[in-house]
Amino acid sequence: NNGFNSFNESGGFGRNYTWTNTLNFKKIFFNDHSVKLLVGTEALGNNNREVGGSRINLFLDDPNYRLLSNGSPTGQSNYSFAGQGSQFSLLGQLNYGYKDKYLLSATFRRDGNSIFGPDSRYGNFPAFSAAWRVTEEDFARSMAWLTDLKIRGSWGKAGFAANTSGLNQFTLFSSTPSNSNYDITGSSTSTVQGFYASRSGNPVTGWQKDSKTDIGLDAILWNGKLTFSADYFQKKSEGLLFPLALPALLGGATAPDVNVGNVKNTGFEMLLGSKGNLSRDFRYDVTATFTTYKNNIVFLPGVPYFDAGGLRNGNAVRNEVDHPISSFYGYQVVGLFQDASDVTKSATQADAAPGRFKYADLNGDGAITTDDRTFIGNPNPDFILGLNIGLNYKNFDFSMFLYGTFGNEVFNYTKYWIDFYQGFEGNKSVKSLTESWTPSRGGNKVP
Predict the structure, then answer these.
(1) 122-147: per-residue pLDDT in tens?
(2) What is the band of 421 on the pLDDT scale with cuts at 50, 70, 90?
(3) Of 240, 274, 304, 418, which residue is most buried, by most CB within 10 angstroms?
């Protein structure tokens, strides 16, 4: 082999365990009162370790010779890493029912996770619910078409750790020849090992706390030929977990997740279903779902907004109070400069030229600056639809699931690489070649 090749090899292990202990009690008192009690503990743990290495320029591509010792020592590298984490929970639930007509439930969890620092590790998460089964009332027993009707309400709080790293609370330092070694002695032939900050830690980061209030009803009509469920909900997320934007003076250290603010979702969910027999051998089961919600940031601690969604040419997302989370933020394109006179009469803009994007001068100062950026898209859908279809004929069955979101904007990052003027000349789409602006083909949308 005369060309460049490389070989990497790694090995490792991981172990996870879950240890749960529960105690249950249930009893019916005076024929009508039922009580169920559950208490328990749960412990989760995991640890892993991996080691690996690589070499370049193996003299053969034969798989039998793919060994690290057969590569060039000048291209040698190796690594190893290890990790561990744990969570411990106390839990309890009390359920009460009267004649299976009036139902009450209370739940409590206390969770502790090693992801968070000692002062923020534990969180208390209660929940309460109540329901009234209307069909157990005497006045409803005569309604033969009404199989079951239940009105319910609930409130609960849960802890969420998102994708927060187990290293989040620690500030870490690393060492690599290219990033931290330095020629302190003044000799051009030797360097001294140094260290750089690879991760910035935040020991006060804690649980994201999601609380949800729900009011709804469930109904079954004609023994299941029609099923209906509807819910109005309000969900509040407090202490939302997001990476902190670090100042440039900290270098390229990985930013920690911090609790950045509160978000509220208010919406409506509905389910409509039907199942039954079309004949002795042909059965069907169809369910349709509809969800709509409104998302809004209600609080950010100490700042009016923070940017996220970093791309090659900057952040594409701004999170700001009274706007939906992860809203797209940038310049509003109003068309293309068609000719030199169009450039002259428009607001001044860097690199303005015929055939390039023309941005909206939103503040009316005659110049396109960062102050002219605005909210340009919302990734949250207007509504979500789902459809489940199940058919059975004798011993044959068929099922289909459809799901769709509607009204949500998507950031088309591919266009940056294929439709923009600057750079990437060899990476253009067919549309940009055949439909883009030229002096003789004006009015197009592709620059």
Answers:
(1) 999 999 999 999 998 888 888 889 99
(2) low
(3) 240
Largest Cα span, the chain: 98
Closest by CA to 135, choosing from 100, 95, 96, is 100
For Cα atoms 130, 23, 40, give the angle at the middle one, nearest 5 degrees.
75
Question: Judging by beta carbons within 10 Å of its beta carbon (0-12, 13-18, 19+), is residue 260 exposed, middle or buried?
Answer: buried
Closest by Cα among 17, 16, 36 to 27: 36
Residue 412 and residue 379 in contact, taking contact as beta carbons nearer than 8 Å: no
The residue among 275, 274, 306, 271 whose CA lies nearest residue 291 is 271
Strands (E), 407-440: none
- Cβ atoms of residues 262 and 325 within 8 Å: no
Instruction: Report the alpha-carbon distance of residue 273 to residue 199 in Å, rounded.
Output: 51
Q: Is 433 exposed, middle or buried, given 0-12, 13-18 or 19+ CB atoms closer than 10 A?
A: exposed
Nearest to 97 by CA among 127, 130, 134: 130
Cα four-point dihedral sign 134, 138, 140, 145: positive
Nearest partner of 171 among 198, 190, 145, 191, judged by Cα: 198
